[in-house]
Specification:
alpha+beta, Arc Repressor Mutant, subunit A, single chain, Jelly Rolls, transcription, about 45% helix
Length: about 280
């Protein structure tokens, strides 16, 4: 099936402002979807039934349920089903994850065949019911995501995967590099050098993928790490500033407030109140 995804795709946001998670049932329709991208969140699709094709960054995957698909921020995709799909769609932001899970995400393939699906879809149904109960139990949601990401890694290790090398490949490589080096390297030029491209080309790739600059991607990763420490540990703010390689606490506080409109202390209080 030939690729027909154009290179200039608008970004859609299916996650409402302020939310970090959405769990829903897969729409049970065969009508082909139009190409679209997601900027700031990850997407896991778990299909119990369905057949057809899923096109991701100009690579066509045949849908053979049971199967899971993983979409990174910035990737372009569309569906073309030949039979009714049934399953679950999970949208989530990185701030909901355990730190180790963030590292795992950057190494997951786009398509993963699913084994022992009966047990898995029972757990997915429980996750969906938990989410629909509308009780903001973020720790429980994090635990479900941790399990599902671990299962994806297990499935991927036991099966073949197809690498994605579409128009957003530079951006995806950049995201992986930032995840590995953001503590000590906060300048786009460093990553452009590793990718053997100019800083301008790196900025252009980021803007095409998620409408953000290369510097914004680094800042978001630093901010996420700060949020993880603030919400998940009792470390003093000064110690967190040091871990994140800020020269002192005031610089970290200024950075954090600039991006969140909250001081680190105020964010920690809000995060603790939600637990």
């Amino acid at each position: 099936m030939p690729s027909t995804i154009p290179h200039d795709i608008p970004i859609k946001n299916k996650l409402e402002t302020g939310l970090v998670l959405k769990v829903s049932l897969m729409k049970e329709v065969i009508k082909p979807t139009t190409p679209h991208r997601h900027a700031d969140y990850h997407e896991l699709i778990w299909l119990r039934e369905g057949s057809g094709y899923h096109e991701i960054d100009e690579v066509n995957f045949e849908v053979q349920a049971p199967v899971a698909f993983y979409l990174r921020p910035g990737q372009t995709h569309r569906w073309n089903f030949s039979s009714i799909p049934k399953g679950y769609v999970i949208l989530f932001k990185e701030e909901l994850l355990k730190k180790d899970d963030i590292d795992l995400l950057y190494n997951l393939p786009a398509q993963v065949p699913v084994a022992d699906e009966s047990l898995l879809f029972i757990i997915l149904a429980a996750f969906y019911a938990e989410y629909k109960a509308k009780v903001p139990e973020l720790e429980i949601h994090t635990a479900y995501l941790h399990f599902l990401i671990a299962k994806l890694r297990q499935y991927a290790a036991n099966g073949a995967s197809i690498p994605i090398k579409g128009i957003h490949d530079i951006f995806q490589q950049y995201k992986r590099l930032v995840n590995s080096h953001f503590l000590e390297q906060k300048q786009p030029a460093f990553y452009a050098g590793l990718l053997h491209i100019t800083t301008a080309a790196l900025n252009e790739a980021c803007k095409k993928a998620v409408a953000k600059t290369a510097s914004a991607i680094i800042n978001e990763r630093v901010l996420l790490e700060g949020k993880v420490f603030l919400s998940g540990t009792a470390k003093p703010i000064g110690e967190i500033a040091g871990i994140l390689q800020f020269s002192d606490s005031p610089h970290f506080i200024k950075f954090f407030k600039h991006h969140t409109n909250l001081t680190p202390g105020a964010y920690r209080q809000l995060a603790m109140a939600k637990k």
